Amino acid sequence: MNAENYDLTRLFNEVTSWTFVQIALVIVLCFLLYQTLRSVVPRVAEHLPAQFRLLALNLIPLARVTLFAVAVVLIIPMVFNVTLKNFVLVLGTVGVALGFAIKDWATSAVAGIVAIFERPYRSGDWILIGSDYGEVIDIHTRSVKIRTADDDVVTIPHSRIWSENISNANDGSKTLMCIAEFMVAPDRSTAGIIEILTDVAHTSPYLDWARPVKVIMHNEVYATRVRLKAYPFELRDQFNFTTDLTTRGRDALINADIKIISTPDFGAVPE
């Protein structure tokens, strides 16, 4: 049986004013419940330890998908006569048209569902997509919002997960690695650098003592690149922590008569 010969009135139930009231009630209740969760959960999460705050924040996108699905499941039987035949007919005649009309939105929406379950990022994660680095503050159906270190809110469509690498600094954990970098003149001895910078990290008020502190050195053409790697106790202290490691580390190295350079000093490189 094709769509031309099919009685389209069989697709619909009898719609009355009470039907519209029921639909409105479902939409309003789901919307109010979501807005309540969206308002209350972040406030409660602010008073929780970091690991529990991240778990609480991730209830919001999951609640959005769940409430949307509940609303659809409740509303469809109110309007449509749900049978297998009707479902196949509607899917065949309307699906293609809708697919072309909302393909860009649908691509981002599907990517959003994938993001919720595969979790390349979660609320509270610090992520880098392209040149944008910041904390995930909201995950919508079509996009993710991040707040950068400059307090800018950037909206990024989920569809970028299909074409770009996503760097997640903490991946759901309560801390992330911070790196303070120094360039040491190549004609100076590196003796004592590891001990000096390790002590700098261990005396920082932001340090997470449960995580390791590492000092990595690598020879460059014009300098010895020294990287001090450590973890802050709180995610949001990462910039203060990096600043603390950089300023005190630089001063400690200078006080130890270790020359720090900020630009290539090719005159100091032996021929």
Note down, in words, how this protein is organized.
- Strand 1 and strand 2 (132-139) form a beta hairpin.
- The protein has a five-stranded antiparallel sheet. Strands 6-8-7 form a three-stranded antiparallel sheet.
- 44% of the residues lie in helices and 17% in strands.
- It is α+β, with helices and mostly antiparallel strands and 271 residues long.
- The protein starts with 16 loop residues before the first helix and ends in a 16-residue tail after the last helix.
- It is elongated and about 85 Å long.
Give structural attributes:
271 residues; alpha+beta; five-stranded antiparallel sheet; three-stranded antiparallel sheet; 7 helices; 8 strands; 44% helix; elongated; disordered N terminus
Unreliable spans are 1-5, 265-271
Give the strand order of the largest sheet, numbering strands 1, 2, ... along the chain: 4-3-2-1-5
Average predicted confidence as pLDDT: 81
Sheet-strand content, in percent, reads 15-25%
Cα gyration radius (Å): 28 Å
**Shape label:** elongated
Question: How would you characterize the largest beta sheet?
Answer: 5 strands, antiparallel
Determine the N-to-C terminus distance: 86 Å
Number of strands: 8
What is the string of helix and strand elements?
HHHHHEEEEEEHEEH
Structural class based on helices, strands and sheet pairing: alpha+beta
Structure annotation, total helices? 7
Fraction of residues in helix: 40-55%
